[in-house]
Amino acid sequence: MKNKIVILSLVAFSLFLTGCASKKQLTECQDQNRALNDNYMTAKEQLAASTSRVASLEERLAQTEKAYNQLQNSLDKSLANANQNNVSIDKLVDQINESNQYIRHLVEVKSKSDSLNMVLTNNLTRSLSKDELKEVDVQVLKGVVYISLADNMLYKSASYEINDRAAETLSKIAKIIMDYRDYDVLVEGNTDNVPITRENIRNNWDLSCLRASSVVQYLQNNFGVDPKRLTAGGRGEYNPIATNDTEVGKQRNRRTQIIITPKLDQFMELIDKAPESE
Prior knowledge:
Elements: H1 2-127, H2 130-135, E1 136-141, E2 144-150, H3 166-179, E3 183-190, H4 204-223, E4 230-234, H5 247-253, E5 255-262, H6 267-273
Parallel strand pairs: 3-4
Antiparallel strand pairs: 1-2, 2-5, 3-5
Helix pairs in contact: 3-4
């Protein structure tokens, strides 16, 4: 009996010890579980935060890529425009250079034209007598030679018929015209403001045109000037160079102008062929 009691005591003590150990382990397990739960929640929160940051970074990356693409497109357009501008600038520079060359050419042509016209003028004035020079005015204006002749040295009184006195003067002018074959010739009649009272001549328009036509035909028929180079025109009383209130002014307005003009498209060739001055 005593042995049974001892055995039972030992079993009870063992159970007591076992129960104490299990309780301690349970407490430890519970502590570990709480620590694991805390770690899990922390990790979960960190994962959520990391996921949020990744999403934010991905959004920023997408915005950066979009801005980069826009910048690249803008740069490509700028380069294309720059290339086009460079081409346009090159064309503009070429046009400016061509314009400068043309301007220099025109200056050279004008200089040669002025020189040639002065030669023509000098040749003509040297060929005219002192008496003829009193009634013939020769000028060079803007590259054009103007020979102005008084009506009383060319026509019969109140008429458009060429008088005998004009023959010698017109022959000298015709020689100059013939020497400069690449020049065009305009003959222009002018009158004063006194109305004309002749049969078959209606007014000063008619008279000025008829007088210019008479000079043109005289140059053609008597001196062989090519009619293709000649033009006849009349300006009536509407191109005065002096007042019509005085007899002297009227006399100056009654004139015929022979206008000699170079053909620009043949001018450079003309320079080489121009007669030399004496």
